[in-house]
Amino acid sequence: MYSSVTSQSMVMTSGGGASFATSAEVRPKLLVVDDLPAIRDVIATGLRYSGFDACCASGGDEARALVAIDPPALVITDLNMPSGDGWGLIDFCRAHYPQLPVLIVSGLPPGTHPEIESFADGYLAKPFDFRELLAEVARLVPAGSGLWKVG
Length: 151
Hints:
With 151 residues, the chain is of the alpha/beta class. Helices cover 34% and strands 27% of the residues.
């Protein structure tokens, strides 16, 4: 799993907020996949500010390569991308890393394709409130999961 050790960083609290941790901790690494750099960078920056490590991929092809090298704690992906779509990425994750949670973040409105919401572990429609994203991340990568360690 991706991880990073830091001596002071911001961590999620159970109420969805964040607080600083002063001891060394291992932070889960999240993979953000979107073909639009502005969206990808805003999500990754917000996750880093919230205490996560975040790496980025511009499409499903690049994301599959990153996951194969070192699976993250969570994949956050768009669906419609020119360089390998999110559908293929999710299929790859399910086939090779069945325990890896996948959160879809897409411009497709909820209910448009009912199979979308059952295809992954979570779904957010763009645009979304960043607090909604953090709530989904906290649900999919819970503090007691062993991915968060303070020591």
